[in-house]
Amino acid sequence: PNTSATETTKAPSKTAAELSGLKQNSAAGLDELLSSVSTTILIVGGCLFFFSMLRTRFPLVYEGTAKPEEVTSTWFGWMSQSWNLTIDQIEDRAGLDHAMFIVFLRLASRILVSLALPFITILAPLHFFVGGDAAKDSPLSWFSMANVQYGSDLF
After folding, report:
1. For residues 111 and 118, is the Cβ–Cβ distance under 8 A?
2. Residue 71 backbone zone (phi > 0: left; psi -120 to 50: alpha; other: beta)
3. Do the Cβ atoms of 108 and 123 come closer than 8 Å?
4. Between 91 and which of 26, 32, 47, 99 could a Cys-Cys bridge form, CB atoms 3.0 to 4.6 Å apart?
């Protein structure tokens, strides 16, 4: 067929979400979220328990360059000791790369907290109360843009 630049193209009959196979959250989504969160908590808890047990059984492997007076003998005492390390202490023991990675993670955490506060305190209540109930029976979407009716002032 001969096409010219002046011909108009038809609007697609499907939305981008439909073409990519995305579906909106359903009422069962909350149960799925709670199931995955509980599974993750169990796995992380098991890993922490396993690490704490191995750390006390094999101190040469897990305590590395730490001095004996710096190491706690309790199972989970390493958490508070690790949390309270300064960047200089991390650099002395693990090197500059590790110290800079910790600096990066701390910066990323601060940025995410500073962005999350206005979203949680301003946008989530606006979507829930003024959005227009577009999400209907989907509890996971009540606080998001999915709850805002198309054409709303919030859109």
Report:
1. no
2. beta
3. no
4. 99
